[in-house]
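Structure first, sequence second, as always.
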């Protein structure tokens, strides 16, 4: 189950956030893998904030939630912080993240989250992805039924003629 949290107007992560999720009993009632993503308005560690004040009570509540919910915070690639106040006296924090269940991590051990550049918002977008895996050579399959499609034949002829015009080796074939 995937749950996205929109930015709340709460100044810190507290029991109201957990209650709005239905409480932790809600999580236990669904024996499925979990992925929480969004703006939690809190950090898990003081190093995830630069400038401004680190609200220790919020930090403790957020850490308690992560432990009780049994979710994993993936390392962030890209930008270290996901939010900025964009003011002269700058403040940055990692408020946005994906928290996933260990089961998902066992299925996708290379899973990463990445912070993308910030454009219009005061938050950077974050994505979660599995890095590409090189499975080796991928064979090309040709189906004889393709030769019966007149539009495909016409398109192939046009492409070959374009290759000849571009100065590539002449490719001849007979259909």
């Amino acid at each position: 189950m995937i749950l996205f949290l929109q930015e709340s107007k709460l100044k810190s992560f507290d029991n109201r956030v957990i209650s709005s999720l239905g409480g932790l009993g809600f999580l236990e009632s669904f024996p499925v893998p979990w992925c929480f993503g969004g703006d939690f308005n809190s950090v898990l560690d003081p190093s995830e904030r630069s400038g401004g004040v680190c609200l220790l009570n919020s930090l403790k509540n957020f850490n308690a939630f992560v432990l009780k919910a049994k979710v994993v915070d993936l390392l962030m690639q890209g930008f270290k912080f996901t939010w900025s106040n964009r003011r002269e006296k700058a403040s940055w924090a990692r408020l946005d993240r994906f928290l996933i269940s260990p089961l998902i991590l066992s299925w996708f051990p290379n899973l990463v989250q990445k912070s993308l550049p910030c454009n219009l918002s005061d938050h950077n977008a974050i994505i979660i992805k599995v890095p590409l895996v090189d499975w080796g050579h991928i064979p090309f399959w040709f189906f004889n039924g393709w030769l019966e499609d007149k539009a495909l034949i016409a398109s192939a002829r046009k492409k070959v003629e374009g290759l000849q015009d571009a100065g590539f080796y002449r490719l001849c074939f007979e259909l």
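Margin note: Confidence is low (pLDDT under 50) at residues 168-175.
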